[in-house]
Design a protein that fits this description.
The protein is of the alpha+beta class. The chain has 8 helices and 11 strands.
C-alpha cells in the first residue's frame, strides 16, 4: 500500500484497490474513448485528481501530457504532483481543482438549461460578460504559453475548460492529445469535437500547426460569447471581438491569423 499519492513510484496492485487503500474515491470519470479513467480521491484530508490507463493508446496519451506538464507551467494548468506505475499501467496525480465544467450539459433538458441555476452552464451564461471574457483570456494565454513552447493543440474543446465559480477562475485540463509541431496528419482525421476542429483536421496529409489552433480558439470565443461554437449570433462581446472571431474561424487557412500570438494580440487590441 502506498504511503502517499504524491510520493509513490510503483505499486503491484490494481489502481482502484490502490486508491481505496489510501483514501476515499469520491468521483470517477471515464474518457470518451474509454482508454483512460480518472478519479477524485480524498486522502489525508487532501483531494487529488488521478488519471490512469492500461491501454496502449491511453498510455501514449498520458506520456504526452506528462511531458507537457513537466515542460510547461501555468497558473491555469492544474499542477502535476506525481507519476507512478501500477500493476498494469501508469497513473498521473494532479492537485484537485475546486471547479465545474460549465459545458457539461448534455444530460439536462432544454427547459432546465434556460432556468435552472444549479446547472453550471446556466450559471456561467448568467455571469457578467467581463467575467466570461476574462475566462477566454485565460484560455488564450494558456494556449499562447504552450504554442511558444512548441506545442500544437489537439482535441481542445469546451470539455477542457473548468471554472471555479467562487473564485471566478478558469482552468484548462485534459490536454492529453497535444503534440509538438507543426506536424503532418497521418490519419483520416484528428480526435476532437467537430464543432472546434479546423477543416484541415479532417484531411490526411494536411499540416497541423498554430494556424489550425487559431481556428479552435476562434470557435471557443464563439462558444463563450455567441450562440455556440459555430455561430456568432446573439453576440455578447464587442463588435471588434466578433470580427476577430470571424477572422480566426475562416474556412480558408490563409485568411486566419498566422499564429496563436498574432490572434491573441489582435484579441487584446479590442480593449
Amino acid at each position: 500500500m502506498p504511503d502517499s499519492l504524491a510520493t509513490v513510484t510503483k505499486i503491484q496492485m490494481d489502481i482502484k484497490d490502490c486508491l481505496r487503500s489510501v483514501g476515499e474515491v469520491f468521483r470517477a470519470f471515464r474518457d470518451q474513448d474509454s482508454t483512460r479513467i480518472s478519479y477524485g480521491v480524498l486522502s489525508s484530508d487532501r483531494r487529488w485528481f488521478v488519471k490512469h490507463s492500461n491501454h496502449p493508446r491511453g498510455l501514449a496519451s498520458l506520456e504526452r501530457v506528462y511531458n507537457l506538464n513537466m515542460n510547461v507551467r501555468h497558473a491555469a494548468l492544474p499542477r502535476l504532483s506525481n507519476r507512478f506505475e501500477t500493476a498494469n499501467g501508469v497513473a498521473l496525480v494532479y492537485d484537485w481543482v475546486p471547479s465545474e465544467n460549465p459545458y457539461a450539459s448534455s444530460r439536462y433538458s432544454a427547459a432546465r438549461l434556460r432556468v435552472d441555476l444549479t446547472i453550471p452552464r446556466v450559471r456561467f451564461w448568467l455571469a457578467p460578460v467581463d467575467d466570461i471574457v476574462q475566462s477566454l483570456n485565460t484560455i488564450f494565454d494558456v494556449q499562447l504559453t504552450l504554442a511558444d513552447r512548441g506545442y500544437v493543440a489537439v482535441d481542445l474543446y469546451d470539455g477542457c475548460f473548468i471554472y471555479d465559480f467562487d473564485a471566478s477562475r478558469t482552468y484548462v485540463f485534459d490536454l492529453d492529445e497535444y503534440r509538438t509541431g507543426p506536424f503532418i496528419l497521418d490519419a483520416n482525421r484528428l480526435p476532437g469535437s467537430p464543432r472546434f476542429m479546423a477543416p484541415e483536421e479532417w484531411n490526411k496529409g494536411a499540416i497541423i500547426d498554430q494556424v489550425t489552433n487559431v481556428f479552435t480558439l476562434g470557435r471557443t470565443a464563439a462558444e463563450f460569447l455567441g450562440t455556440g461554437a459555430t455561430s456568432v449570433d446573439a453576440w455578447m462581446g464587442t463588435d471588434r471581438m466578433r470580427l476577430v472571431t470571424l477572422k480566426a474561424t475562416s474556412e480558408n487557412r490563409s485568411a486566419r491569423h498566422r499564429s496563436v500570438r498574432e490572434f491573441v494580440e489582435d484579441w487584446k487590441s479590442v480593449d
